[in-house]
Automatic annotation (TrEMBL), chain A:
Keywords, alphabetical: Cell membrane, Membrane, Multifunctional enzyme, NAD, Transport
PANTHER family: NADH DEHYDROGENASE [UBIQUINONE] IRON-SULFUR PROTEIN 2, MITOCHONDRIAL, NADH-UBIQUINONE OXIDOREDUCTASE 49 KDA SUBUNIT
Reactions catalysed: a quinone + NADH + 5 H(+)(in) = a quinol + NAD(+) + 4 H(+)(out)
SUPFAM superfamilies per the UniProt record, alphabetical: HydB/Nqo4-like, Nqo5-like
Xref: Pfam families: Complex1_30kDa (PF00329), Complex1_49kDa (PF00346)
Ranges of residues in domain NADH:ubiquinone oxidoreductase 30kDa subunit: 43-160
Protein name: NADH dehydrogenase subunit C /NADH dehydrogenase subunit D
HAMAP family: NDH1_NuoD (MF_01358)
TrEMBL record, chain B:
Keyword terms of this UniProt record: 4Fe-4S, Electron transport, Iron, Iron-sulfur, Metal-binding, NAD, Oxidoreductase, Transport
Keyword 4Fe-4S: yes
UniProt cross-references to InterPro entries, sorted A to Z: NADH_UbQ_OxRdtase-like_20kDa (IPR006137), NADH_UQ_OxRdtase_20Kd_su (IPR006138)
Requisite cofactors: [4Fe-4S] cluster
Signal sequence region: none
Superkingdom of source: Archaea
GO CC annotations on file: respiratory chain complex I
Domain NADH:ubiquinone oxidoreductase-like 20kDa subunit, residue spans: 70-180
Lineage start: Archaea, Methanobacteriati, Methanobacteriota, Stenosarchaea group, Halobacteria
Official protein name in the record: NADH dehydrogenase subunit B
Database matches in SUPFAM superfamilies: HydA/Nqo6-like (SSF56770)
Organism: Haloarchaeobius iranensis
GO molecular function: 4 iron, 4 sulfur cluster binding; metal ion binding; NADH dehydrogenase (ubiquinone) activity; oxidoreductase activity; quinone binding
Keyword Protein transport: no
Family the entry assigns: Belongs to the complex I 20 kDa subunit family.
Length: 556, 233
């Protein structure tokens, strides 16, 4: 751990570490410091000084990205951790640790500083049971309103019965500002609706054809991913679950998030050869995920169930075939292992390379076809250009990442900014667009497919040339991993939808003490209201499609 | 015309002969399908009406467009270009439950979603059939131990066909749908084997600790579902 610490603390000026600077900025607010493997500084602050601390860090030191809020319960206290980063340089990380008392777990809300904290704190309240003062909307978010207890708290009894209501005609405007004269209409979109990309429920209030209020209601696919990971052993039992977070064939990208966090926690090296395979397979997944985003978006925007939707699924089939050759599975790959990958490329290798190269060769022509059909289409342009505007400052406040952020001109890609795998050795570009609208988000995804293809091609060149006696696919990892107790880390990778981060705290056993997933879709979905309020209802559907959410990852 | 040729003992020889005589030799035989072989040129089919209806139901199923989780991606692939479920007469998905005969349940069902799924199932017209896709709809699958996960679709609605896998390949789902068609054609449907979780009015629920606690939050006539996790398999 001490080795890590010296490595990870960049010297700003001679002798002055980031931690010193942070402590100087915060002055008396900082009560204590902790050690998080990822962060340059972790400060402990009092629960009533959260806002002051975050304001100071944001405005004076430039930590403008509240990546994640982790809540957990210890034997003697509750704790919320605010993982902060900088959009300009995500390797600059600071954790703000806020303990709260066991009897009265009350902590100040960070919502006035970062709007993304809204949902994150609701989730913390829902699952762990910390109350946030000044929170604008302190409700449960993932579990039904009528749920009893907080399932990730210590004294939760999983066998106690629960009652869930079906109240589908609830009008969210009825309670607050009752106005019988108002000419608005309440509309439920989902949870079973073709345009919601899964089981999302959007409570919408319409004024004529204009959206007056949007309240995404999530939790229809909350299948306890964090609990599952906390019950599994590091070495074998956790890896299958990441595949099921973002399930649109982006499994390997998710596995990488867990692998990165756990490898950081247990200090495991990954052989270079395995890194190349990881990079290649991850980018294949990214193409598959973006293809689905493209197809379903076209389906949303001009109801094209025939051409584009089917074309994109045709291309996904090709990728799934390649990935099946590599991993043995079409969707739930379970291919990564801590310290490498499960097995080498399939034999005969030439055949695999040829198959992949064939796909890459055909890709430009296919993309051309998509551009003809989608981005060049007048109806599509009318629907998407200048609709669903997301200003960069708003996007940052909501913690938006991935293509959603990059389409708002935020140049943020963890593959380049916080390099992992083999990305920094390869030649590729980060795509950004300045349009901030639905059209830009589509453009970013389509161009990212090209960049991914470039990465895959270079990886294949490398793998073809790789000397036969140097093909180590896994480093030597003990059968049972027991990282030192109270080691904490938060590591993120660039998944298909954005920054997918994992916080792990070890408790000295072979299972994590706390496993928290920071899902990019969860943060991105929060911007929906911002994008669609005051717009027409069809634009709401287009905006929702362009966010490209996956409910498995939103709800976890 | 052909009614002059009575069918005797199931043999179609005479009909075939007649047809051959009419067509003469050297003709295109693409019209000689097996159906024609069986029926000759007779316009009559003798069958029981319910048997006929079962055959029709099995051969033209309207599926409900219903995506839940990971399996729905494989389900889309089954509908889409390579596997094309439509080849088997299982149609393009319908967006409204009122137009659908079959619901494929593709994914994990959690406490918040089960009442909604029950409602969607109730909205489908009879006769209706259910295909449970994936391990989650069998037992809760990999999430079986989760605090929020229903231990299988059968806890909520009766299921006719279970397709195992996580997720099942499209081929497996096609096989499951084909099996369902076979069952429908044979007039079979699934008996309800467990007492499912039901939607009931909150006022009708037996009083216990949870009900008492929620009494001031929930209206008497609100529909609700009670999960007895301790009794779950």
């Amino acid at each position: 751990m001490s080795v890590e610490e010296t490595e990870e603390t960049p010297e700003i000026e001679a002798g002055v570490t980031v931690e010193d600077e942070v402590l100087e900025t915060l002055g008396d607010t900082a009560q204590d410091t902790e050690e998080h493997l990822n962060a340059d500084a972790s400060v402990v602050v009092r629960p009533d000084q959260v806002q002051d601390t975050l304001f100071a860090l944001r405005d004076e030191m430039g930590y403008d990205h509240l990546s994640c809020v982790t809540a957990q319960e210890y034997e003697d206290r509750y704790e919320s951790i605010y993982h902060m980063k900088q959009y300009d340089d995500p390797t600059q990380e600071v954790s703000v640790v806020v303990p709260a008392s066991k009897d009265e777990p009350i902590s100040q809300s960070a919502e006035p500083v970062f709007r993304t904290a809204d949902w994150h704190e609701r989730e913390a309240y829902d699952l762990v049971g910390i109350n946030y003062e000044d929170h604008p909307d302190p409700r449960r978010i993932l579990l039904p309103e009528t749920w009893q207890g907080h399932p990730l708290g210590h004294d939760y009894d999983q066998d106690s019965p629960q009652i869930v209501t079906l109240g589908e005609w609830d009008n969210p405007l009825r309670d607050d500002h009752v106005d019988n004269e108002a000419d608005t209409m309440f509309l439920n979109i989902g949870p079973h609706h073709p345009a919601t990309h899964g089981v999302l429920h959007v409570k919408t209030v319409l004024d004529g054809e204009t959206v007056a209020d949007v309240d995404p209601d999530i939790g229809y696919l909350h299948r306890c991913e964090e609990q599952m990971c906390q019950q599994g052993t590091y070495r074998h039992q956790i890896m299958p679950y990441p595949d099921r977070w973002d399930y649109v064939s982006a499994g390997i990208l998710n596995e990488w998030a867990y692998a990165r966090a756990a490898e950081d926690l247990a200090d495991i090296e990954v052989p270079e050869y395995a890194q190349v395979i990881r990079t290649m397979s991850a980018e294949l997944c990214r193409i598959a995920a973006h293809m689905l985003a493209l197809g379903t978006f076209a389906l949303d925007v001009f109801g094209d169930f025939t051409a584009i939707f089917q074309y994109s699924f045709r291309d996904r089939e090709v990728i799934q075939n390649i990935l099946e050759d590599l991993t043995g599975q079409r969707m739930m790959f379970n291919y990564f292992r801590l310290g490498g990958v499960a097995w080498d490329l399939p034999e005969p290798r030439e055949e695999f390379f040829e198959k992949t190269r064939d796909f890459l060769e055909e890709l430009p022509a296919k993309l051309e076809e998509y551009h003809d059909l989608i981005t060049g289409n007048e109806i599509f342009q009318l629907r998407c250009v200048d609709t669903g505007i997301l200003e960069p400052e708003v996007a940052k406040s909501y913690g938006a990442t991935g293509p959603v952020a990059r389409a708002s001109g935020i140049d943020y890609d963890l593959r380049r900014d916080d390099p992992y795998g083999y990305y920094d050795e390869l030649d590729w570009d980060v795509i950004t667009e300045d349009g901030c609208d639905n059209f830009s988000r589509v453009l970013v995804r389509m161009q990212e497919v090209e960049e991914s293809a470039k990465i895959i091609e270079q990886c294949i060149d490398l793998l073809e040339e790789w000397p036969e006696d140097d093909r180590t696919i896994q480093s030597n990892v003990p059968r049972t991993l027991k990282p030192e107790a109270d080691t904490e880390t938060y590591r993120a990778v660039e998944a298909a939808k954005g920054e997918l981060g994992i916080y792990i705290r070890s408790d000295g056993t072979d299972k994590p003490g706390r496993f928290k997933i920071r899902s990019p879709c969860f943060s991105n979905l929060q911007t929906l209201g911002e994008m669609s309020e005051g717009e027409y209802i069809p634009d709401l559907i287009a905006s929702l499609g362009s966010l490209d959410i996956v409910l498995g990852e939103v709800d976890r | 015309m052909s009614s002059d040729n009575p069918i005797d003992g199931g043999s179609t020889d005479m009909l075939t002969d007649t047809r051959d005589a009419r067509m003469g030799e050297g003709l295109d035989d693409r019209f000689n399908s097996r159906l024609r072989e069986a029926f000759g040129s007779s316009p009559f089919i003798l069958t029981k009406f319910d048997k006929f209806m079962n055959w029709v139901r099995g051969s033209s199923m309207f599926m409900l467009q219903f995506g839940i989780a990971c399996c729905s991606i494989e389900m889309i692939h089954t509908y889409a270009i390579k596997h094309d479920l439509d080849r088997f007469g299982a149609g393009i998905p319908r967006a409204s439950p009122r137009q659908a005969d079959v619901i494929i349940v593709p994914g994990t069902i959690v406490s918040k979603f089960a009442p909604r799924m029950k409602r969607v199932y109730d909205q489908m017209p009879e006769p209706k059939f259910v295909v449970g896709m994936g391990s989650c709809t069998i037992s809760g699958g990999p999430f079986q131990e989760g605090y929020n996960v229903i231990k299988g679709a059968e806890e909520v609605i009766p299921v006719d066909i279970h397709v195992p896998g996580c997720p099942p390949r499209p081929e497996a789902l096609v096989y499951g749908v084909a099996k369902l068609q076979e069952r429908i054609a044979n007039g079979e449907s699934s008996p309800v084997v467990v007492k499912p979780y039901e939607l009931e009015q909150f006022g009708d629920m037996e009083s216990d600790e949870v009900v008492d606690k929620l009494a001031d939050q929930i209206d008497e006539d609100t529909l609700a579902m009670r999960y007895n996790w301790a009794d779950s398999p």
